[in-house]
């Protein structure tokens, strides 16, 4: 299959264009992606995250660093992301190594979050067992009492991660399930691009 005309040399620019089209077509959580990780034994797990930036460095997301995903990444620092935009009939898959983002970037993003989200970040022991909802609500009240104003510092157990892409695949629906697939593979400082069978 010949390369489609949209096979631009820069997959990050192509992704950002697709994301803009997805946000225009269906603005609710266009940045949501399935994040797949695996623990030290290779046991996989997947969940949705919001990707907050995509640039030449990679794809950034933020989370509790004591969560299952963070424990997986500490043991096995590789991950895959999958963006699916039904309104466009397109998806993008990203695979690569994962590293923690600098604290300064985590601080800046944390400050931009709504107050209730910052409170929730302190109150939730993400992925830990929960006895009942009252336990969590009590933790929220305790955090609100501790930080009565708008200045709520970033918890030391909360931060960001960067997926540095080594492989990015763009998929677009085609008639008769003859879909269009273009893959970019990192080669040194550049990208090798090619088409895949549907």
Q: What is the helix content?
A: 25-40%
Tell me the series of helices and strands, N- to C-terminal.
HEEEEHEEHHHEEE
Anisotropy-based shape: elongated
Fraction in beta strands:
35-45%
**First-residue to last-residue Cα separation:** 9 Å
Highest-level CATH class: Mainly Beta
CATH fold category name: Pnp Oxidase, Chain A
Query: Uncertain regions: pLDDT < 50 for 5+ in a row?
Result: none
Q: Identify the quaternary structure here.
A: single chain
The chain-level structural class is alpha+beta
Largest sheet: 9 strands, antiparallel
H/I helix tally: 5
* CATH A-level architecture: Roll
Strand segment tally: 9
Average pLDDT over all residues: 95
Brief summary:
Its cofactor is FMN. With 198 residues, the chain is of the alpha+beta class.
What does the model show?
The protein is of the alpha+beta class and 198 residues long. It is built from 5 helices and 9 strands; from the N terminus they run H-E-E-E-E-H-E-E-H-H-H-E-E-E. It has helices at residues 11-25, 68-75, 103-112, 115-123, 133-146, and strands at residues 32-38, 44-50, 53-54, 59-64, 78-85, 90-100, 158-172, 180-187, 190-196. The termini are close together. The model has no long low-confidence stretch (mean pLDDT 95). Pathway: Cofactor metabolism; pyridoxal 5'-phosphate salvage; pyridoxal 5'-phosphate from pyridoxamine 5'-phosphate: step 1/1; Cofactor metabolism; pyridoxal 5'-phosphate salvage; pyridoxal 5'-phosphate from pyridoxine 5'-phosphate: step 1/1. Its cofactor is FMN.
């Amino acid at each position: 299959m010949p390369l489609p005309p949209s096979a631009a040399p820069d997959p990050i620019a192509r992704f950002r264009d697709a994301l803009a089209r997805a946000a225009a077509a269906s603005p609710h959580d266009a940045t949501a992606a399935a994040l797949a990780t695996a623990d030290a034994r290779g046991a996989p797990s997947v969940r949705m995250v919001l990707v907050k930036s995509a640039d030449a460095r990679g794809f950034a997301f933020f989370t509790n660093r004591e969560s299952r995903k963070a424990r997986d990444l500490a043991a096995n620092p590789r991950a895959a992301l999958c963006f699916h935009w039904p309104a466009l009939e397109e998806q993008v898959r990203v695979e690569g190594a994962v590293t923690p983002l600098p604290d300064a970037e985590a601080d800046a993003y944390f400050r931009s979050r709504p107050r209730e989200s910052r409170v929730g970040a302190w109150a939730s022991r993400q992925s830990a067992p929960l006895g009942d909802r009252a336990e969590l609500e009590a933790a929220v009240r305790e955090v609100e009492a501790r930080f009565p104003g708008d200045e709520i510092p970033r918890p030391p157990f909360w931060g960001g991660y960067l997926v540095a892409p080594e492989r990015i695949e763009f998929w677009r629906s085609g008639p008769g399930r003859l879909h269009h697939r273009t893959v970019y593979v990192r080669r040194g400082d550049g990208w090798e691009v090619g088409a895949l069978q549907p």
